Structure formats: C-alpha cells, structure tokens
Fold this protein.
Amino acid sequence: MAMHGGVTILRYREPDLPDIAYVEQLAGALYLDNPAEIDRYLETMEDTCLRAAPCTQTKAILERYLACT
C-alpha cells in the first residue's frame, strides 16, 4: 500500500454518512466509497500494524538504517 501512495480512511460521526477512502496516487487522488474497497484497505492497514515492529524499537531500526547509508 505505502509503495503506491498514502491512504486515509475518512469516518464520520453521522451514521448516514459512509466511510470514504482517500487514496493518493502519483498523478492525483481517488475518493472511494464502495464498502468492499474500503474493507480491503482497512484489512491491509490492520495487517501492516500487526507485522510492524513495536514503537520501542523504532530508534534502533532507524539507527541501523542510517549506518547502512
């Protein structure tokens, strides 16, 4: 997901307003309101969070990265 651009899920307090996925791309942006498409983005975000290193390791990860550059 991150390789293609940023994604923001817009959620509203009003139950009548649907969630919207704002997807940034190289040449523009999309606003998606199809629930199935939004679910795919939410599942991908959840998977990314589950695979990510704990925030307590961020400094060490960045230091290792900087040492290689």
Q: What stands out?
A: The mean pLDDT is 90. The two ends are 24 Å apart (CA to CA). The helical segments are 35-51, 58-68.
